[in-house]
Amino acid sequence: MDDGAALLKQILANPHDDVVRLVYADYLEEHGERERAEFIRVQIEYASNPCSVLSRFQSHAPSPANGPCAGCVRVSELRKREVELTLQAVGQWWMSEVPQKWMVKFDRDRMPYDRPTLYYARGFACRASCPAADWLKHADAIRERHPVTRVVLTTMPTAHVPEVNATRKWNKPLEWGADVMWTWEAEWPGIAFELPANHPLNEGMVAWWAPAPL
Questions:
Q1: pLDDT of res. 110
Q2: Cβ proximity of 207 and 195 under 8 Å
Q3: HSE value, Cβ hemisphere, 13 Å, CA-based, for 157
Q4: Which of 29, 87, 112, 191 has its CA 20 to 30 A from that of 133?
């Protein structure tokens, strides 16, 4: 295992540790992947800037008398560079990190989209939204590259997804409730699965998942 693979393994095992992500960014830059390295650094700086959250609230808006908040100015710069680097990534490092036909968004963007989507924060995908069949198809490849801790399923993982029983060693059709909770979360430990907030089955139902902190 080379240094890059070892660092990526550490990131996957310690998803809240930014130090190892920055070390990985240094490694990437030293090996010619400057844009990918900068993307990691930009997103980490953005996430660590208090204004990245506070600027979403009107109460934090700068007053004309005091001028713009320095933190908010930096957040604006980081967002601009984040988008530039994302556009540059198309056809480059995305090819090895993102399943074909999946969208890439930022963690601050709404969930879910109509298409399978990975949501990036601090340089890597931390969330996903997709139909159950798409997660079954791509889960292993995604988890080899990204410390995903939350997945919104846009379709129900029940017996109408035949791959479930065929590939996951379950000997009966899945039913909503305990079966889904235990089989999916046991198969992919560390990930919280949920349905979209407006899904009919969420009405009057006690949520069994708890989104992991970013």
A1: 80
A2: no
A3: 28
A4: 87
